[in-house]
Design goal:
Radius of gyration: 19 Å
Strand content: 15-25%
Number of domains: 2
CATH class of the largest domain: Alpha Beta
CATH topology of the largest domain: Rossmann fold
Number of helices: 10
Bound molecules: NADP nicotinamide-adenine-dinucleotide phosphate
Structural class: alpha/beta
CATH architecture of the largest domain: 3-Layer(aba) Sandwich
Number of strands: 11
Shape: globular
CATH superfamily of the largest domain: NAD(P)-binding Rossmann-like Domain
Length: 290
């Protein structure tokens, strides 16, 4: 059976390290989160981010805007936060309602406060290997591999999914000439002709698909390391909430072949929040150098 890559435990270790750094900082890092509308999953994420921030001594401010908010109103809110020196970090919770263009909004956040790493300037810096805010979920994936002592250089990393927030930044990161990367990277998507033929070649397989249990045990090479980024709600009438969370990987069957695997929940999810806190602390530290 595969070893469990316990994202929750690794995230707690990172948070304990950050708590010490925050205590010694001359400013209290401040993260502003903007949530437009009432998406239930987004509300859960936002509450969880605020709770973690408070645990670390990071100030967090959540701005709730109604679902009818216009693009202009949201731009005005972002401009206020950009110009507020007491706010070091800004996160716009996605998805946004249909009337608002995501790209316009993400590029309106000051790159210096863009702790999600979604501004075009920060995406470009990541591409050319300059210091920047690395998007939190991809950063969490890399960090959990490193802290689990998974050797990455020279390995074949297969990423299923090419979204701008997960798959593409991951591909960029693992292809870089860096001690925690330097891998051979393959990116798969709906245009991939024979997905199983590719996933079976992966030393490290990362699923960021958004389809419950799309990666079956039979698609995974013996001894591979599997990271499941997916978070999917599937109906579970017997549970109190009426649903349960599952990943993009069929866990039980895959665990029989893999050497290590991250679970859902308790894998990449907590790592994402830990990396958001890390980026927030970095933004506060950067602000003192300006
Ligand atoms: N743990 C966390 O903190 C965290 C953070 C972000 C996202 N997530 C989860 O991660 C998952 C992916 O999120 P996302 O935002 O990257 O999703 P997304 O924007 O919907 O992208 C999904 C990607 O998967 C590809 N894909 C879909 N079906 C496929 C198939 N049958 N075979 C091969 N490729 C397929 C798509 O290909 P095309 O490009 O060809 O359409 C696309 O590139 C979701 O479950 C999301 O909830 C978790």
């Amino acid at each position: 059976m595969a070893n469990l890559i316990d994202g929750k435990k690794i995230a707690m270790d990172i948070q304990a390290e950050l708590k010490i750094i925050v205590k010694d900082l001359k400013v209290v890092p401040c993260l502003a989160v903007v949530l437009v509308g009432e998406n239930p999953a987004s509300q859960v994420y936002v509450r969880s981010k605020a709770r973690t921030a408070n645990d670390l001594g990071v100030k967090s401010e959540t701005i709730y805007l109604p679902k009818e908010t216009t693009e202009l109103e949201l731009l005005e809110q972002i401009s206020k936060l950009n110009n507020d020196d007491s706010v070091h970090a800004i996160l716009i919770q996605l998805p946004l309602p249909a009337q608002i263009k995501e790209g316009t909004i993400l590029n309106a956040v000051s790159p210096k406060k863009d702790v999600d790493g979604f501004h075009a300037v920060n995406r470009g810096k990541l591409l050319i290997g300059e210091d920047t805010f690395i998007p939190c979920t991809p950063a969490g994936v890399q960090e959990m591999l490193v802290r689990s002592h998974v050797e990455i250089p020279g390995k074949h990393v297969v990423i299923v999914g090419r979204s701008k927030i997960v798959g593409l930044p991951l591909a960029t990161m693992f292809a870089q000439k860096h001690k925690h990367a330097n891998a051979t990277v393959t990116v798969c998507h709906t245009g991939t002709a024979d997905l199983t033929a590719i996933t079976l070649q992966a030393d490290i397989l990362i699923a960021a698909i958004g389809k419950p249990e799309a990666i079956k045990g039979s698609m995974v090479k013996e001894g591979a390391v599997v990271i499941d980024v997916g978070i999917n709600r599937v109906e579970e009438p017997s549970s109190e909430k009426g649903y349960k969370l599952v990943g993009d990987v069929e866990f039980d069957e895959t665990a029989k072949h893999a050497s290590a695997i991250s679970p859902v929940p308790g894998g990449v999810g907590p790592m994402t929040i830990a990396m958001l806190m890390k980026n927030t602390v970095k933004a506060a530290q950067n602000s003192m150098r300006q």
